Prior knowledge:
Blueprint: H1 7-13, H2 20-27, E1 31-34, E2 44-50, E3 54-55, E4 62-63, E5 70-80, E6 84-95, E7 101-108, E8 111-114, E9 123-124, E10 127-132, E11 139-140, H3 150-157, E12 165-166, H4 181-192, E13 204-207, E14 213-215, H5 216-240
Helix pairs in contact: 4-5
Amino acid sequence: MPTGDDPHLTSLLVAQAASPEHELAVHFAPFLKFDLREPFLPIAVGYTVIRQSGPSPSFPRTIEVGRGEQVLEYAIWWDWDIVHLYELEHIWIYLDSAERPIRAEASWHGSYRSMGVNGAMPLTGDRLVLYSEPGKHAFAPSPGWYQEGEKINRWLCCEGAGIGGVLVTELFAELIDTKSSQADKLVQDFLRRYAFVPTYEFNRTLQLPSEQMVPWPDLFRWIPERVSYLAEGLQGLVRLNPDPIEPLECEGVH
C-alpha cells in the first residue's frame, strides 16, 4: 500500500506551522540506517520538546531532565511492522544548556535502552546515527546488538510475517476499535506478501525529513483514524487479490 498518493497522510502533514520546537526537532533529527531489503520506512514523526521531568506523552516511561537540559522526544510512525499493522518507535535525545547532544535513548521491543558505543554517542556532526532492526525496527547504536536475536527475527520476517494482526497498545486501547479476527487475518495475508530474508547489511540511510515532523498531539489524534484507514484499504486489496500469497523468498529459511 504505497503512500505516494495518500490523502490521509497529507491531511496530517500539510500546513504544519513553523515554531522554535519544530526547528529544534528538525535540527537534531537522527539518521536511521536500514537493511538492504527492509520493506517499510517511517512516514511521520511526532515530536515533543521536554523541559522538565515527568511522564513521556507517548511512551510508558518517565523522562528525567537535568538542570538546564531539554529532551527531544521523537515518536516515529510506520504504517507497518513485518508482524503487525503499525509501528511506533521512539528516540530521546538529551541536550545540555548549550543545546549540544549529551546522551540518547531509544525504544527496544517495548522497553528502551541507552544508545552508546563504548560510552560514546554515535554522532555525525550533531545528529544521532542509529540502526533499525530489519522488519521489527528496534533501534541500536551498532548492528552487533542484533546478533543475539537474529535467528528469531529471521523467522518473524519470513514465516512469522503478519502474525500480530492489528496492534493495539495500552496508549490506544480505548481509541482503536479495528481489532478483530477478520482484520487480523487481512493483515496477515497482506504482510506475507512482504516477507523477506534480512541481509543485515545496513546500506540505506534515512534522515527524518522536516516535512514529516508534526507535534505529538497531532500525530496522536491521527493514529486511530490511520489504523482504520489502512484496515479498510486491506479489504479492497484482498477483494482484488483473493488468493493467499506464500512468501516464496523465505523457502528454506529456518
